[in-house]
Amino acid sequence: MSLCQCAVKHSESDMEGCCSAPGAGLKVFLHWRGEEEEHYQAYTQGTPSAEEICIDVAQKIGITPVCYSLFALYDPQTKLWFPPNHVFEIGKDTTTSLSL
């Protein structure tokens, strides 16, 4: 699993070193972040499970392990909640946006 941290406020040229292409990969939006903080966590390749992504994001924002199970990934376009064992196939053609 390759992890890439890019903020929505970055320009395309700033994102080249971080993400393979603007909009590529799986993005998990963090709606509660402040204006100066990153707006999403991006994954550009690999096969992480929904649980692995939730734990990764929770660790990055300081949520304790006791509370990891309180979070899940949601796709607002399809109105679908992903179970913890759902595996995402992330490649160069993936353009998925989820909410935590």
From TrEMBL:
Q: Which GO terms describe its molecular function?
A: growth hormone receptor binding; non-membrane spanning protein tyrosine kinase activity
Q: Which residues cross the membrane?
A: none
Q: Name one GO cellular component term.
A: cytosol
Give me any GO biological process, just one. intracellular signal transduction
Domain FERM stretches: 24-100
Record InterPro entries: FERM_domain (IPR000299), FERM_F1 (IPR041155), JAK (IPR051286)
Record-linked PANTHER family: NON-RECEPTOR TYROSINE-PROTEIN KINASE TYK2, TYROSINE-PROTEIN KINASE HOPSCOTCH
Q: What is this protein called?
A: FERM domain-containing protein
